[in-house]
Amino acid sequence: MLQDIIENNKKYQPGLSIDCVIFGFHDNQLKVLLIKVKHSKKWSLPGGFIPVDQDIDTAAATILNHRTGVEGIFLRQFATFGKTKRNENHFDKETLEKLNIPEEKGTWFNQRFVTIGYYALVDFLQIVPDSANTHDIVEWIDHKEVPELILDHKEILEKALDCLRTELNLMPVGYTLLPEKFTIPELQKLYETILDKKLDRRNFLRKITNIGILKKLDEKKNNVAHKAPNLYSFDKDKYEEVLKNGLNQGW
Amino acid sequence: MLQDIIENNKKYQPGLSIDCVIFGFHDNQLKVLLIKVKHSKKWSLPGGFIPVDQDIDTAAATILNHRTGVEGIFLRQFATFGKTKRNENHFDKETLEKLNIPEEKGTWFNQRFVTIGYYALVDFLQIVPDSANTHDIVEWIDHKEVPELILDHKEILEKALDCLRTELNLMPVGYTLLPEKFTIPELQKLYETILDKKLDRRNFLRKITNIGILKKLDEKKNNVAHKAPNLYSFDKDKYEEVLKNGLNQGW
DNA sequence: TTAATATGTGTTATTCTGACGCAATGTAAT
DNA sequence: ATTACATTGCGTCAGAATAACACATATTAA
């Protein structure tokens, strides 16, 4: 990819990039898929550039697919970042040398990049970080333990989480984050983790079932400590309908 | 501006622009500030390009200020648009000739442009469309009577309105759209116009006053038909507080 | 067998919402 | 002047939604 860009500047939209905040849920933790590029000490959000002949939404889906292997996943553009100094000194002389980028080609990287942020909600278990494939280290990291990131990626991540929290009040969330069959307590943990606050079990159950997007299965989760909780799945039709119409009208 | 870009490509971020949806409220109508460029039959959203040494938010504020003369106004980035063909054929050979742009310079305009959408809420009465100043025709147009627009500007406008409607449920709106003193019925009309639906007078009053952002003034509106309504103003401190914390928690 | 933990279901008081009644104020028509 | 009409201000009431909490059940660990 990098090599392609160095050799074929013209194929990519100049000064513009995409960064993806890929959320997963596992072990009651909200995880973020981060990568560490060769020669870099800091982690970063998976991102990429935009072919001039590709819609930006398509480019984002491509990047997501490239990193996770999944397709057709929930992906949402949430904000665009363009502070003048956001990528200043990122590709300095030393870095360019390390990466074997000739200096005259390096100017392409040294312009100010505006980056479009997308966040994705994926099923943790379906994604196996495949470091070998991309020559980068790819890892799921608990969002509470995200280390220092390059550039303004921490700010981008925070903003994504912020948007996700807001969206939680406007639409149902979980379909793409949980496995097909799940329990109400699991769903509640997801909500609690995203919102970073405790919710009342009984009130949560009532509210979430009232939305009408859940199907109670005639099946209990097994191999669990304590009382076996019932399994549920999403009623996809109803789910899509609510996604379209929103949850609370407000006015 | 156009001349500056033609001569100094390098000063501007290539392939990237900003478009502003400027909302105002007057005569019980939600108005949008539109412009018509010389040589164009279609109207368009006021927009501009991004100096490489300017934050995108700053660039948006500059564009807004350039068109309206106002500063420090509510301005929010809401989405970024980047379909491949969105500005295809916009600066075709004929147009370039009309605008006196040499063909080799015209290539700058013919790349795919990604545009960042901002919407602004301004006090209608404070803005006098000044066509003379910009050589373009600038006009307030009722959002229900917006004619055909260039490129995907209609889509951008729709999306802005959509976001505004959603935001209405998350935060108070009106501070920058109404004059300092206003009546509850006026505020209600604003809400009804944005949402495009009727609200119950009495329930609206209860709900809006419960938010705690209004100050009832010891003054009535005069020169009105029928019973004179009371005047209110926003309690700016409380307003800002609610803006920060949001309206409905939901969960 | 008992303690501890987590799930499933129900209750109650309070608040919020939607739908509507009615008196007060001011304009316009007769 | 009197009446009809439109608009505002304030209030009521039933039903829905919400927050806080009680109790029974299932399962494991001591």
Automatic annotation (TrEMBL), chains A, B:
<protein>
    <recommendedName>
        <fullName>Nudix hydrolase domain-containing protein</fullName>
    </recommendedName>
</protein>
<dbReference type="Pfam" id="PF21906">
    <property type="entry name" value="WHD_NrtR"/>
</dbReference>
<dbReference type="InterPro" id="IPR000086">
    <property type="entry name" value="NUDIX_hydrolase_dom"/>
</dbReference>
<dbReference type="InterPro" id="IPR054105">
    <property type="entry name" value="WHD_NrtR"/>
</dbReference>
<dbReference type="InterPro" id="IPR036388">
    <property type="entry name" value="WH-like_DNA-bd_sf"/>
</dbReference>
<dbReference type="InterPro" id="IPR015797">
    <property type="entry name" value="NUDIX_hydrolase-like_dom_sf"/>
</dbReference>
<feature type="domain" description="Nudix hydrolase">
    <location>
        <begin position="15"/>
        <end position="165"/>
    </location>
</feature>
<dbReference type="InterPro" id="IPR036390">
    <property type="entry name" value="WH_DNA-bd_sf"/>
</dbReference>
